[in-house]
Amino acid sequence: xxxxxxxxxxxxxxxxxxxxxxxxxxxxxxxxxxxxxxxxxxxxxxxxxxxxxxxxxxxxxxxxxxxxxxxxxxxxxxxxxxxxxxxxxxxxxxxxxxxxxxxxxxxxxxxxxxxxxxxxxxxxxxxxxxxxxxxxxxxxxxxxxxxxxxxxxxxxxxxxxxxxxxxxxxxxxxxxxxxxxxxxxxxxxxxxxxxxxxxxxxxxxxxxxxxxxxxxxxxxxxxxxxxxxxxxxxxxxxxxxxxxxxxxxxxxxxxxxxxxxxxxxxxxxxxxxxxxxxxxxxxxxxxxxxxxxxxxxxxxxxxx
Length: 304
Prior knowledge:
Elements lengths: L12 H20 L10 E6 L5 H12 L3 E5 L12 H8 L5 E5 L3 H10 L4 E5 L5 H15 L6 E5 L4 H13 L2 E5 L8 H10 L3 E4 L2 H5 L4 E4 L11 H7 L7 H4 L7 E4 L11 H4 L6 H20 L3
Parallel strand pairs: 1-2, 1-3, 3-4, 5-6, 5-8, 6-7, 8-9
Helix pairs in contact: 1-5, 1-12, 2-12, 3-4, 5-6, 5-12, 6-7
């Protein structure tokens, strides 16, 4: 039976830990020049309705390093962009490729595609969730601190797809997560409510300083995501007090690290001083997309 990765909640806790362990192994193999072509002869179809740097390159290069090939598919170059039903595209592509990664706006579209596909489907990002990024971030925390156990994660800013996936990860793994989001920009009630049924280790506050207190990881994202450009000025006003800067970091742990999934707007959600500073693991985080993506594809596309 095929397995998809549409949400962190598609994985059990032990599967997440196994995935992070395999990510470390694959990273070591790549750094050491050890061949690791577990997907030789396999193909990944990549559907992009949203533009991308890290997602596209990490999946494409990762598939190449695993011995397979990745095929870039944009709506303007395929029949899905001319109105072909999602179900038809899913069934046809399933007969050509061994896995499909989708980066799109609508999570409903992703779920419909997965329902009709006969091969594993990976969520490369939707407006609701971004599981691949959070798995990368969990790996980066594990790599830096040696363990996820006992870590406190702080999210500062928009209650967006990143915040939603952090909430799902906290519910699944049990680490402490505190989010600071302005009124009107909090996580979706459905995502938060479902997580709180599973775990009581998640808090949503108004005060970013309180959310960052004693945090091991201080995490943020842009204030206006793709598709929200027309809200940019309003959002700058709403999020003005939610910038990750040196003053905010004084409330965090002395060993705290800083994350941002990129692209970043220096001087808005994060200062250049912090992004380029000694606490920042942002570019390690970005590099680790490659290694985590490889572990995800291997887990799903090598499954019996």
